[in-house]
Amino acid sequence: MTTSTSSSRRILVVMSSAQQLALQGHKTHNTGYFLNELGVPAKRLTDAGYELVIATPRGNVPAMDQSSDHAMFFKNKEEHEEIKAFVGDLLRHASIQTTGAVAEQGTGDYAALFLPGGHAPMTDLMVDPGLGDILRQFHAAAKPTALICHAPTALLAAQADPVAFQKGMEAGEQPSAQDFTYQGYRVTVYANDEEEATEKTFEAPMLYYPADALAQGGAEVQNGEAMKPNVVRDRELLTGQNPFSDEPFVGELLDMLGGARA
């Protein structure tokens, strides 16, 4: 069991700069972060006394996936409104850094790394060199690294040539991930049956599914029932399968951090 021993009260939140997901036939789908996957963990972490530092590849304010702005992803309408207001305030006052700058500065002052989902991480974060460096630093320090829903695909940035790997997946090939930091790690990610249902609302099929990409990269994907909470913890790595995993996901992260702080 891996528990953070850092006395830091800062958590690095890495989010995508992307607003569109490429689909088959040169079509695209508007995307961004999923509201509850960011907001529910972020509020629990803030309430526990942690400071959140946000970084994106371009240093821009991340966009919300509009399909996530719905009470169905929350306990009730009141929580939806509360979390939406919290996230709006968080991003409005954040001094957003680039992932490259964070990697260069070093991550020693952070207690944990957190990546929310939405399809956006499959575009830029999966190939972002800054995030690749950040992941390797957290891995070397054995510090909690937590990703939910589609965000676990961003783990694939921590390999020798993530761009070639992503292009191979997009082309329908079976690329190999050389020097993948999380080779053999147990993970969960948005499952194929969940994705098949989701992409029915898209203009065209996706180029590849996140679970297939992680399995191809060498991770051991352990998915549960569709649209039911599922969290997998392996060493310093914590992953959640879908939007409905948000509460157990952040509860496990707080446990890895040593429990909630006043």
Automatic annotation (TrEMBL):
GO term, biological process aspect, one: methylglyoxal catabolic process to D-lactate via S-lactoyl-glutathione
Entry keyword Iron: no
Domain DJ-1/PfpI: 37-159
Signal peptide: none
The protein's name in its UniProt record: Type 1 glutamine amidotransferase domain-containing protein
Listed Pfam families: DJ-1_PfpI
Coiled coil: none
Organism: Deinococcus wulumuqiensis
